[in-house]
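Hi R.,

As promised on Friday, here is the backbone we talked about, encoded as structure tokens. Could you run it through your design pipeline when you get a chance and send me back a sequence?
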């Protein structure tokens, strides 16, 4: 199996191996849709690699899923557990974003793909809306077993030197075609369908018409050859209604029958009944006498090649709007916009430009020509360029060809790297704050409907960018405040290798109450402290500064006395916030460490041989509660080669995960880094934390290694 995996991966077709495994999982579980995600090493974004059961365009918004995103597959991988959503109501309650975009009936399961301690990706399965709200034990076992098998395939390919990596687009698995009938059987089947009342047609999973009867063509008012091989809502203008395509998507995703009624102008009402399966959709078309409004205008179709239909555009716009609510910084907005828009709207290059101090600034770019607007970076707002003109006037400009752009701005010196482009203002509260550039590799006509659509997109992005820039400003302020409250650098202490990290919570102000400190007392003694003030806001940060100052002022006394003095100070201040703290007195001459804790997680101790355990410390009450609290001490050996890991609970705490289990896994990671310096170990543990925890709490980490002495 290993040799076969290597040969398949070596030929660039590693996804074929995954495709076979995914097909087996679908058969074993009875799922109708499957999505296999890979998590490349040292990345924090899941990539959709293999898709089964739905066409690729329906999965477009979900091709890249950050581990931090509130999505079932991200939670499954990050929390390392199976996520089950047995109803649309449960999906909406726990994951409102995908529920908003996919308001259809289906059951969903998501599970992690792992080998050992390595996260390799995730699996998402969808069952039809008729599935029971509960996942059966057999289905659960098949899903878990399938993930285990896929993980082994990935591990074998990696061990052979040919890891399976996600491609630029997911591999889409198509259902096997049914066996071809004998000519006589095919003729009999066609005659049978022709004799049925009303009309009949068949759609492929991607919505294209593969077959229709003469009666169906007559009811549709079109020639069969003009409809066959097309999307009906594209070839038939009166079907270009978002409701029509929405029913098609509902049938494909939920695998349940659905019906709708449409007026074919001028006055013929038609009912459509959709019967989906794994290979396509059978459609029955019948005339109906349902009355409808008079004078309904016939919808017009976009004339631009490659422009998504109205329903598809609304689908992507809704998803973009939902996604942008989670963007917390400027680069988040740019990345999300690129992921959502470029493939959906066939845009090759996307550039964000903003204004600052009277000049244009390139804020971010994505696509095939990322340096398209670099020549204008720093240009005055008065310069004769389309980006400046749009920003100053607030009016969009559309150029179907590069020659149109060159005629409008002959002196701008723009690159002929694109064949068409659109410049749209980013307007917030009636004030242009920047320009958005969409560029295309081919000439591109912009009809009124598409211009309105692109303007709507620019409006969404402008609001998101404005919020993101405000967040960025607060984040810079918070980081500056935090930097002044924490040590600028750790002291160089002979005999010790030390490293520290601080990560603010992903939600909130980016400033919190976690702190650490390392203090050199004399040539052979030092003190280390770590603590966590309740909350992660400016009040917690202010109190953290006071606690750290108090600990620093008392350093050198016995650990129990240091904590007792700090506790009395906090109870006198009565800040209304509690603080945990761990204090350690390090005696490098005697090779010992004396510790006391005030409700803080116990540190990890790694012995010179790599054995790593959580130290058992006598408990102590949190600081700031009882001024008479006592803090027992314990002394442990700290031989050369031993190391301590002090951390706050944000490094290991995650919903649904036992704290002791999480601490034990952290200890395992610490043990594996036996031969690394502390800076490298700190980076490794932080990477682990980013994957294992939701990032809703601050993280502080202090590592101390007693160096081996010569001889």
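Update: got your reply. Pasting your designed sequence below so it's all in one thread:
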């Amino acid at each position: 199996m290993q040799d076969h995996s290597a040969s398949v991966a070596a030929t660039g077709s590693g996804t074929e191996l995954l495709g076979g495994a995914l097909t087996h999982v679908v058969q074993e579980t009875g799922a109708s849709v499957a999505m296999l995600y890979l998590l490349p090493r040292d990345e924090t974004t899941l990539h959709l690699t293999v898709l089964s059961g739905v066409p690729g365009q329906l999965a477009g918004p979900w091709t890249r899923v950050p581990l931090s995103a509130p999505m079932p597959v991200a939670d499954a991988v990050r929390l390392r557990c199976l996520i089950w959503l047995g109803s649309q109501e449960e999906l909406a309650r726990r994951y409102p974003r995908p529920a908003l975009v996919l308001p259809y009936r289906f059951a969903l399961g998501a599970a992690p793909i792992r080998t050992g301690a390595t996260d390799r990706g995730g699996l998402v399965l969808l069952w039809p809306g008729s599935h029971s709200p509960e996942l059966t034990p057999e289905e659960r076992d098949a899903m878990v077993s399938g993930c285990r098998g896929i993980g082994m395939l990935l591990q074998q390919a990696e061990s052979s030197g040919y890891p399976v990596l996600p491609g630029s687009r997911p591999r889409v698995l198509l259902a096997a075609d049914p066996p071809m009938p004998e000519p006589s059987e095919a003729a009999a089947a066609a005659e049978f369908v022709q004799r049925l009342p009303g009309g009949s047609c068949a759609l492929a999973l991607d919505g294209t018409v593969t077959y229709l009867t003469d009666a169906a063509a007559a009811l549709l008012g079109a020639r069969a050859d003009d409809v066959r091989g097309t999307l009906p809502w594209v070839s038939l203008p009166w079907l270009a209604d978002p409701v029509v395509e929405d029913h098609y998507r509902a049938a494909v995703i939920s695998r349940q029958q659905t019906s709708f009624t449409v007026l074919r102008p001028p006055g013929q009402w038609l009912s459509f009944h959709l019967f989906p399966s794994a290979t396509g959709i059978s459609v029955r078309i019948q005339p109906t006498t349902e009355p409808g409004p008079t004078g309904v205008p016939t919808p017009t179709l976009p004339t631009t090649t490659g422009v998504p239909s109205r329903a598809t555009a609304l689908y992507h716009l809704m998803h973009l709007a939902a996604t942008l609510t989670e963007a917390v910084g400027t680069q988040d907005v740019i990345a999300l916009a690129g992921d959502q828009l470029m493939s959906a709207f066939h845009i090759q290059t996307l550039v964000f430009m903003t204004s600052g101090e009277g000049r244009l600034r390139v804020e971010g770019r994505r696509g095939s020509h990322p340096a398209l607007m670099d020549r204008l970076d720093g240009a005055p707002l008065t310069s004769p360029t389309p980006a400046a003109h749009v920003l100053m006037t607030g009016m969009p400009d559309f150029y179907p060809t590069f020659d149109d752009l060159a005629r409008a701005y002959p002196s701008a010196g723009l690159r002929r790297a694109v064949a068409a482009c659109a410049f749209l203002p980013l307007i917030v509260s009636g004030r242009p704050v920047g320009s958005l550039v969409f560029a295309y590799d081919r000439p591109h006509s912009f009809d009124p409907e598409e211009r309105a659509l692109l303007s709507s997109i620019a409006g969404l992005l402008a609001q998101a960018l404005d919020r993101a820039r405000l967040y960025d400003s607060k984040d810079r302020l918070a980081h500056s405040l935090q930097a002044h409250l924490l040590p600028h650098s750790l002291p160089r202490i002979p005999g010790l290798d030390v490293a520290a990290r601080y990560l603010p919570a992903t939600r909130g102000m980016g400033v919190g109450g976690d702190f650490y400190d390392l203090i050199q007392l004399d040539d052979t003694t030092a003190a280390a402290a770590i603590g966590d003030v309740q909350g992660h806001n400016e009040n917690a940060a202010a109190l953290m500064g006071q606690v750290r100052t108090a600990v620093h002022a008392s350093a050198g006394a016995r650990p129990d006395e240091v904590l007792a003095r700090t506790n009395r100070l906090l109870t006198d201040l009565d800040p209304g916030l509690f603080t945990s703290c761990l204090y350690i007195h390090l005696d490098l001459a005697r090779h010992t460490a004396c510790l006391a804790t005030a409700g803080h997680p116990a540190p990890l101790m790694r012995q010179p041989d790599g054995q790593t355990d959580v130290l058992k410390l006598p408990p102590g009450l949190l600081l700031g509660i009882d001024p008479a609290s006592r803090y027992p001490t314990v002394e442990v050996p700290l031989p050369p080669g031993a190391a301590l890991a002090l951390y706050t609970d944000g490094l290991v705490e995650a919903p649904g995960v036992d704290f002791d289990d999480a601490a034990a896994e952290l200890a395992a990671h610490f043990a594996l880094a036996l031969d690394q310096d502390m800076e490298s170990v700190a980076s490794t543990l932080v990477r682990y934390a980013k994957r294992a925890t939701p990032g809703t709490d601050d993280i502080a980490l202090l590592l101390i290694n007693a160096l081996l002495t010569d001889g």
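One thing I noticed while checking it: The first helix runs from residue 2 to 10.

Thanks again,
M.
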